[in-house]
Amino acid sequence: MNEIQLKYGCNPNQKPSRIYMEDGSSLPVKVLNGRPGYINFLDAFNGWQLVKELKEATGLPAATSFKHVSPAGAAVGLPLDDTLAKIYWVDDLGELSPLACAYARARGADRMSSFGDFISLSDPCDEDTAKLIKREVSDGVIAPGYSEEALAILKTKKNGNYNVIEIDPSYVPAEIERKQVFGITFEQGRNELRTDGELLSNIVTVNKEIPEEALRDLKIALITLKYTQSNSVCYVKGGQAIGIGAGQQSRIHCTRLAGSKADNWFLRQSPQVLNLPFKEDIGRADRDNTIDVYIGEEYEDVLRDGEWQKRFTQRPAVFTREEKRAWLDKNQDVALGSDAFFPFPDNIERAKKSGVKYIAQPGGSVRDQLVIDCCDQYGMAMVFTGIRLFHH
Questions:
Q1: Of the residues 28, 32, 202, 305, which has the fewest C-beta atoms closer than 10 A?
Q2: Measuring CA to CA, how many Å separate 250 from each of 189, 223, 253, 340, 346?
Q3: Residues 50, 257, 301, CA angle at the centre, nearest 5°?
Q4: Are 100 and 141 contacting, i.e. CB atoms less than 8 angstroms apart?
Q5: Superfamily of domain 176-267+328-384
C-alpha cells in the first residue's frame, strides 16, 4: 500500500486528504485498527521520531504524548516511585513494565494537555502499556509492533474504533524533505542531528559539574525540542519532561509557560494535593481539572460553597501562595533545554524559580555573557551546543 485515504485534512472542510509515497513505494506504516486522520498521522510521525531518538540516546524504552504536533510529555522507562504512581493515577496497576512506566511519565507530565493525545512508543506495545492506554482518553497509538494481548486490548477501546498504527522500525526517510505552503514547495535537508555527549561538551559556566543523570535529562530535553513547535523550552527531571512551552513568539514566554507546567507537576506531589479528599465517584479527568484549578490562582472556583461539595467529602484548606512557594523551593536539579539562544538573563531568573540547575542552549546571543553571569550567580552549569533546534 503506497497511500491511505483520509476522511479530511486538518479541518472537515479540507478535502480530499491522503498520505502517500511520492516515489510509489510502500508506506512504512500499517493501520491495524481504526481510521487515523491527518492530524493523527502528523502527531504519530513526529512522535515516532522523538521516541526512536530517545531510545537510541539513552538505551531505555521511550514514550511521548502528542497534541497538535507538539509533545505534551516525553519520557524514558524508569521505575515509578509511590508518589509518581499516585499522581499519575496508576498506583492501582501494580508493578508496570519499563515501556508502561515511560508512557505513565509522558502522560503524567501535563495530564491536562495530554487529554485526547496521540501516543508514540519506541518498543512493541506490551500488555501493561495497553492496559494503561485503555483507561485514558486518547486518539491513537503508533509503535513498531504489538503483542497479541496488547492488540486485543486496544481493539476494544473507543467501541472498537481506537487508532492503532504499526510502523516499520527499519524505515529510513529520504535525506531531502519537502512540503507545500500556499502552492509553493519548500525543500530542506532532514535534521539528522545526533544528541550525544559531544553536543553537551562545551560547558561555559564556572560550574562544570554535570552528573550522568543530568546529561541524560539534557539529552531528553534537546530531543524533545527537536520535535516541538518553536519557539520552545523544555524542563526535564528524572528521565521525563516535566514542562514544555511550545509555539510561543517570545523566548521568555516559552520559559514561563514551561516553568509553570513544571511547577504544577511538582505541586501535585505536595501533601496538600496528595491528601485532597476527593469523592469516590470523581473520575481521573475531573480530578486533574480540579487539581489544576486548586493549585492555581482561581482556586475559589472549586472551593466556594456549592462547588466543593461536588468534588470533595469536605472542604480542603486553601493552598496558600506562601505554602506553594515553600514546596516549590524543594524542587532541585532540574535540567532545561532551549531550541534557540536565551537573549536575556530573565530566562535564567525564571528557570531558577523552578529548580533548574543544568541548562543546554545554542548560545550565540550578543548578551551571552550576561546570561552566563546569571548562571554563575546561582551556581548553574550551562552548555552551549552551538546548534539551533527550530521545528515548524
A1: 305
A2: 26, 21, 5, 11, 12
A3: 120
A4: no
A5: AICAR transformylase, duplication domain (3.40.140.20)
H or E element: which one contains 258? Answer: helix 251-267
Cα dihedral sign for 124, 127, 132, 135? Answer: positive
Q: How far apart are CA 221 and CA 78, in angstroms?
A: 16
| Cell of residue 384, nine digits | 552551549
Bridge partners for 246 per DSSP? 232
**Distance linking the first and last C-alpha atoms of the chain:** 28
For cell 505554602, the residue is 323
Which residues, 6+ apart, have CB-to-CB distance to 7 below 8 Å?
17, 35, 37
Q: What is the CATH number of domain 271-318?
A: 1.10.287
Nearest residue to 233 via CA among 357, 109, 341: 341
Helix (H) or strand (E) holding 103: helix 98-108
- What pLDDT, in 10s, does the model give residues 308-337? 999 999 999 999 999 999 999 999 999 999
The backbone torsions φ and ψ at residue 72, rounded to the nearest 5 degrees and listed phi first, read: -85, -25
For the stretch 66-119, pLDDT in tens is: 999 999 999 999 999 999 999 999 999 999 999 999 999 999 999 999 999 999
Alpha-carbon gap, residue 196 to 343, rounded angstroms: 25
The count of other CB atoms within 10 Å of the CB of residue 345 is: 17
On the question of a common fold for 3-167 and 176-267+328-384, the answer reads yes
pLDDT category at 1 given cuts 50, 70, 90 is confident
Dig out the grid coordinates for 332 from the structure: 532541585
Domain 3-167: CATH class, spelled out: alpha beta
Residues with catalytic roles: 67-68, 231, 392
Domain boundaries, the chain: 3-167, 176-267+328-384, 271-318
Strands 17-20 and 334-338: unpaired
Give the length of the chain: 392
The mean pLDDT value for 257-269 works out to 98
CA distance 369 to 367: 5
